[in-house]
Specification:
heterodimer; A: alpha+beta; Alpha-Beta Plaits; 4-stranded antiparallel sheet; 2 helices; 6 strands; about 25% helix; flat; B: 19 helices
């Protein structure tokens, strides 16, 4: 079994303005993903993230701590959420994330243990 | 003698050994190292003990011992009983693993090929890795095929292996829904391997027919899964036509025999017939997907040679037209060079030399070698001499070197 973090990225859009069918489809797709993961391994954790305009970035610049408004990197796609899963291999992870909404870009990153 | 026997086993059995060990231990990081150590052990032991009756089995046993030693050492570090660790991990994997029920194809080499050509690997890395692990091609020869320096290729292969382990790319046949997409890459990988066997960059053999035959076997194995897949059929036709000439390419003294001088009676007619039948079934290239189309055009070029009763009957004009089509579908320096050769045959050496000006193939002796030939035909021996000398400094294949030196010596001595 391998542990992966699945990062979900998408272009910002207005969930509150989405019609009921769109929202229902999203829930169904996330449900299919979770069912698939449960069948082949387990879902360790997950979260949806608030929009990037609610983010705060902290960096060390020239010996000072600088706090700024906004996400780490300004990109067209924003990180909107994550799943932490335990699955047998990459092919299973790919098969699982294919079930998620098609508007997503997904990064599958192995988790390492620091010893 | 021993060194040759060992080298032969490595060349012919590497992929099967890697696949067998991977199937048993599932640890890519340990398997290749263990096999490398086993080869070194053989190099030390066989001169004293003699070549074993079954050299591949000897290497398998030696490598297995080393893998088990490493697994035990790891388990000790984690302070758990080694047997329990391995069984427990394997049990979890069997329950969770997808798709590969072992029903599709009982071929560990195919699993290895699909692992090496996984889309999560960068394409050049995938091809390089498959050549290295599946067909045991040396890192130098792989580097030559990709026209990059050897250290670059070594690093690329190491990174690819690390990615497989880190990302959990499985040693398995994928589900039937994604298998078709995986086949283009497999085809490209197989053709690169075939080319390595057809005209390798280093060493004494002009033809490593065993490697070419192995690449052919690879394509047949994959085609058995997907019997009507155009890219596999087209590639098989191309490979069969080129492979059919293998017994005529090397003379009795081991020297190179050019296509024009080959004894066509030594070509394999059954392989040619099989290829021509495949081409008839495939139809026009323009309706095929890009990779399949490129292979079809190259196969048709090879078919022009195969169906010409003598070298003089070859329809070079048609071959030039095919190369024009190929350069539209999939331009490459190698294709441009081959077109220049064909143009010289169809329209004379000056036309060929003009076309050669546009060929850029760094690190390869072939453009210089072709230029030299055409300059001889154009009755410009002084320039030909310079070109032969350039080709000789670049050439790493001993049989081709001998040929070039012979051609240079045959020139009239300089004034």
């Amino acid at each position: 079994m391998k542990r992966y973090l699945i990062l979900i990225a998408y272009e910002p859009w207005d969930w509150s303005a989405a019609p009921e069918e769109v929202r229902a489809a999203f829930f169904a797709q996330h449900g299919a993903f979770s069912a698939f993961v449960a069948e082949h391994g387990q879902e360790v954790a997950s979260a949806a993230l608030d929009d990037t305009d609610t983010a705060t970035t902290v960096r060390h610049v020239d010996g000072e701590v600088v706090v700024t408004d906004g996400p780490f990197a300004e990109t067209a796609e924003m990180i909107g959420g994550y799943y932490e899963v335990e699955l047998p291999d990459l092919d299973t992870a790919i098969a699982a994330v294919r079930l998620l909404p098609p508007s997503y870009s997904l990064e599958i990153r192995p988790i390492v243990t620091i010893t | 003698m021993i060194a040759e026997a060992l080298e032969r086993v490595v060349r012919e059995e590497w992929g099967r050994l890697v696949a067998l060990l991977l199937a048993r231990y599932r640890r890519l990081d340990l398997v290749e190292d263990a096999l490398g150590d086993a080869v070194e052990a053989a190099a030390r032991a066989w001169p004293a003990d003699g070549v074993p009756d079954n050299p591949a089995a000897w290497l398998n046993t030696a490598a297995s011992r080393r893998v088990l030693d490493r697994l035990r050492a790891e388990a000790m570090r984690q302070r758990r009983a080694p047997l329990l660790v391995t069984e427990a991990e394997r049990g979890r994997e069997r329950r969770g693993a997808m798709a590969d029920t072992g029903d599709l194809v009982e071929d560990d080499v195919l699993r290895l090929v699909l692992m090496c050509t996984h889309p999560a690997l960068a394409p050049e890395a995938a091809s390089a890795l498959a050549l290295r692990l599946v067909l045991g091609v040396s890192t130098y020869d792989v580097a030559r095929l990709f026209l990059v320096p050897e250290p670059t290729m070594a690093a690329r292969i190491t990174r690819a292996k690390k990615k497989i382990v880190a990302a959990g790319i499985p040693f398995a046949v994928p589900g039937a829904d994604v298998l078709p997409d995986r086949l283009d890459t497999v085809a490209q990988t197989a053709y690169l391997a075939f080319t390595a066997g057809y005209a390798p960059g280093s060493g004494p053999d002009l033809l490593r027919a065993g490697l070419a035959g192995e690449a052919l076997r690879l394509v047949r194995v994959v085609r058995a899964l997907r019997p009507t897949e155009p890219v596999l059929l087209a590639l098989l036709a191309l490979m069969l036509l080129q492979h059919s000439r293998r017994d005529a390419r090397v003379g009795p003294d081991g020297d190179l025999v050019l296509l024009a001088d080959q004894d066509r009676g030594r070509w394999h007619p059954d392989e040619i017939d099989e290829a021509l039948a495949l081409l008839r079934a495939l139809g026009p290239a323009r309706v095929l997907p890009r990779q399949a189309a490129a292979y079809v055009v190259q196969a048709r070029i090879a078919a022009e040679h195969a169906t010409a009763a003598t070298a003089g009957d070859t329809r070079w004009d048609r071959i030039v037209t095919h190369y024009d089509a190929l350069l539209e579908i999939m331009p490459s320096p190698a294709a441009r060079l081959a077109r220049a050769v064909a143009l010289a045959e169809a329209e004379g050496p000056l036309a060929g030399l003009a076309a050669l000006e546009e060929v850029v193939l760094p690190g390869s002796h072939r453009p210089a070698s072709v230029r030299a030939e055409l300059l001889v035909r154009a009755a410009r021996p002084a320039e030909a001499r310079v070109a032969y000398e350039e080709a000789i400094t670049l050439c790493r294949n001993e049989v081709e070197l001998q040929h070039l030196r012979g051609r240079l010596a045959a020139l009239a001595p300089p004034d």
